[in-house]
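Methyltransferase-like protein 21B, Perkinsus olseni. Tokens?
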Amino acid sequence: MSDGVEEDREITREISALLADSRAEQLDDAVERLRQNSGDQWNRIVKEEALLENGTDLLIRVMKRFPDLAELAGECIAAATSENVICGSGAPTTVTFGTPPHEVQFHMQTADYYGAGLGYKIWPAAIALARAIYQHDVSLGDHPKVVEIGAGVGLAGIAAAKFGEASSVCFTDMMAGSLEIAMRNAKRNCPSVGEFSSTVVDWRDADGLPDDADVMLGADVIYEEAHAELILQLLRNFHGKKAVLALMPQRPGYREFTAKLRNLKSVQVAKMSVSTPIGECSILDISVID
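Tokens:
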């Protein structure tokens, strides 16, 4: 292996370590050096890295943080695994509720896998949460004002308006592009139901959520270990009455989150489990006590 290739591999490993520590400024510098140094070798280098332990996780993180690298990183993931493994059920664009002749279909815009972050897909946990709302397995209250965190393309929030009689839904996400798609999906599937809005929210800003929301929704929002404490902090600062979170127990951070959640004196938690194509999904119905 040439010295240049080995140098690029070292930079790739450096990116992985920096991502784990969330040192954004140094990460930006490392990625820029990788782009400048590797040139046409980037594709081959990262494909090799994808075959190493945690390599795919590195690529997913790069896709989320650097949209201009997403297409190339997506090709590398496909070379090492398959997009269905990454996206769970294959990211459907039509979601069906009920059975004929009373079935309801949502036609959801997503985005092509290559060139788009993972928030632009419909994940199994979001479908599980939407169906729980449809089946009234969880109650959102009387015409609640709903905020969806990590909304992506907006499936759970749209279900809250359509089936949960939400008077308003505010989609929140850190990616403005996915919020634009969520608003289009809301207009397409609920043209005369509910009031929709969107706002970019960074979970590190616990005060970023709307103050007037009654219910918080979130699907697969504990995706990394760092998310556990961030979501707990959102719950501590939430002024509403309840939160309903659909979480995947196999995700890093799930055990830490649920253990700490049980120790919060300000909440009561009811749990139900449903099956999805990528494993069990835990739907947590969290009542916030004044």
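Strands lie at 94-97, 104-107, 145-149, 168-173, 195-200, 215-219, 242-247, 267-276, 279-288.
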